[in-house]
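Dissemination and training. As part of the outreach component of the grant, students in the summer workshop were shown how a complex can be specified as a set of sequence lines and then modelled as a single object. The example used during the hands-on session is reproduced here so that future cohorts can follow it. Participants entered these lines:
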Amino acid sequence: MPELPEVEVVRRGLERTLPGRTIATVAVAHPRAVRRHAAGAADFAAVLTGRTIEAACRRGKYLWLALDSGAALLGHLGMSGQLLVVATEKPDETHLRVRFTFSDAGRELRFVDQRTFGGLAVVPADAGVPAPIAHIARDPLDPGFSDAGFVAAVRRRRTGIKRALLDQTLVSGIGNIYADESLWRAGLHYARPTGTLTRGELNRLLQSVREVLLEALHAGGTSFDALYVSVNGESGLFDRSLAVYGRAGLPCTRCETPIRRDAFMNRSSFTCPRCQPRPRKAHW
DNA sequence: TCCGGCACCTGTACGC
DNA sequence: TGCGTACAGGTGCCGG
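and obtained this result:
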């Protein structure tokens, strides 16, 4: 599932291969892939054709390609999206949604998405971050991220700490996997009410988040299957380093207590019952 | 304004 | 073998 490290690996791949290339053709194979482009698929293709890509950028889990027109090709990988830069003769993927060819033939950009939670749109981006994602917070690896601002905002919330970690307007880039891993490292239970967390605990959590994200980034991201891959189609290796996620019943690597799986927000949360004691007053 | 619940979507695993 | 069901989960919308 693409979270910050996976999206950053993809961004770096796009940044290596796309700037300076001019889009020759755009073919939308599945309209749902461009549902966020209000003017429709035909307009999507028309406004991109002939445009030159200048840079590949990221905010949280969103990616965008800055164009010479001042607009941006904004994308989100959702659960299963892939942006691949491949040889034009390579056979189409089963779930190919959008194909971009360039004026210099040889390689093309493909948006592939099995579950179609992801999507692409062309949006204004004159002032840096595209308008539709202006509400997305910076991520903890962004030099402009404010630790003090995050700590204060979390303490003002009345919710559980995991919900806060997953709220992209508070801190971006964290999904279900890295939220669980970070909370385990910090020794915090996901249901701890945000209002009861001390500044020290929150700073420790931020430290854990950064460690987890950086380690995953250096490993090339996390992958359980073929759903997440870099622009070259390669899978990451961080899944071999996961401490709790997906390890229900297996011993905690710190204390050997069996890892517990709970239903949470229509998904799963994995905790060590000993390292992450459940608060007396839990907040979902 | 803040918070929680749910729809969206498809492939896979599993039970019967 | 084939069918039905549960599950995976990021985001945005809606209701309280």
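Chain A has two domains: 4-133, 147-271. Students were then asked to discuss how this feature might be tested experimentally.
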